[in-house]
Amino acid sequence: MRESTTPQDPRDIPDYRALFVIDMKGYSAVQSWRMTDYWGDLEGMLATAFVQSGLGSEWHDPLYRDSTGDGLILALPLAKARLLVDPLAENLHRLLADHDRERLASVPSIRVRMSVHVGPLPDSHRGDPINDLCRFVASDAARDTVKVAEKHRAFVAMVLSYEAYQVIVRAGRTERLRAEDFRLTRASVDEKFAEPAWVHVPRVNGELLEAVDPWPGVGAKRVEEPVKSPCASDQPAGGVRNFGAIGSYLEQAHDFTINN
User: Fold this and answer.
1) Which of 240, 13, 21, 25 minimizes the C-alpha distance to 154?
2) Is 193 in contact with 229 (CB distance < 8 Å)?
3) For 183-223, what is each residue's pLDDT tens digit?
4) Could you tell me the pTM of the whole model?
5) By the 8 A CB rule, do 134 and 159 touch?
6) Does residue 6 lie within any of the structural domains?
7) In a domain, 4, yes or no
8) How many independent structural domains does the chain possess?
9) For a FRET experiment, which of 4, 55, 106, 241 has its CA 20 to 30 Å from that of 99?
């Protein structure tokens, strides 16, 4: 049994986790009798991609796993967050591309939206980090990015929360991907949720992501300075969320996790 990481006082901050969610484009349109096999195909490729990405043990024994109906949520140790971005997205794309070449005409293509986030997660696995993770993958930005993927015969659309981008990509923890492979955008859901996020499609140059609306006022220019959240209802009383400060804190948490 894992040791509890939830503080005795619920106001204390629990350990930060790497959070991952994936769902399948068009799953609800699949005939009901095909759904089990359709999801089984993706689950098998996910398992292989995790192993190929150095996440085999985390796939078989994650800190948290839950089904979303047309996808999957996982929580992993924070130190493994970088592998969810690079090389997992590329490895999964390659497996899905192979599947697409070999499938029968009667078998639908599989394209996915995936999101990576980092945040404090109590043992209940409830709270804003999980909620926001699911909003990122359901956002307009995620749906627009999967359209770009389809246009360029790619199979994975990835959305990183601003916090995840700061501690993984901007901090230089990816092996292959660089800042220019991502596009800063607004991830919104029904005007009730709007957060900065970075999107990526494997093997598609970041400049080709122009079909995804940029963060307001940014255009295609890469942003290095902290960006403020547009969600007034989510702001602490008397202040504004500073993602630069959060990114710095997360880097310290990441280094602490590795060194301990």
Assistant:
1) 25
2) no
3) 999 999 988 899 999 999 999 987 778 778 787 755 444 44
4) 0.80
5) no
6) no
7) no
8) 1
9) 55
